Amino acid sequence: MLKFLTFLSLLFAFQVSSQLKLEVKMVDFEQNKSVLPKTFNIYQSMIAHKGYILEFTLTNTSDQPVSFPLDTLSYAIPFTEDTRVYYEEENVSSNPDRLYRLGVYGFIDQNGPVSEGGIGCEMPDIVEHPDHKKAREEREKTISEWKRKNHFKTQGLMVNNWYIMKSMIVMKPEERIQYKIYFNPFFKKLCHYCYTEYYDGLNPELPYEVNFKIILNKNLYTLLTEKQKRQYKNLYTEVVTSNTLRFEGQ
Length: 250
Fold this sequence. Notes:
disordered N terminus; 5-stranded mixed sheet; alpha+beta; single chain; 3-stranded antiparallel sheet; globular; 25% helix
């Protein structure tokens, strides 16, 4: 009987961990320029490497629905290989949406892991575009309203809660989500008020490999209230890893 129960436990664990499947491929740059951020032309003179357009396909391979947050606008740069420590309180960003912390994390290997990202706050001497100014002000207004309606012990926890809730999705059995993003490990800046990000220590002259992970550990859901958790059944608590892409040196 004990062996049978152990077998069932292992079978259930396998089913849960393999419930989501993530695939990524490179697509034609010229044919998918609509994916490029609006700031691409403005900052193009600062970009030594053009970057790539990637297409992601996420599939719920099971016969059960699953809930989790996912930001499909861009990718996040990992700060450590240890996915267990993501979303711990000391590792929670105060501006997670500006760093796309609920997007796929790009883990790079170039003769070893290159997971430590760099962030720069330098802003070029240009006037903020009205569309970006409007988006920034709307974000600030929305967060202020969220703060008024919800009570958290810190501003950072409140912003993360807002970001998670606005990114929540429910995937039906066998449902597939497909989206494209601009990927450039040497320069990432999607808007005027976004941070400039890059992979520190990545050598552009050498080839490197990248796989992407959606990090959905238990720490993430501690940022939700009990009421919010009850809104979503089958919260997914696994790390979903994609296939590996290889990029040649420049």
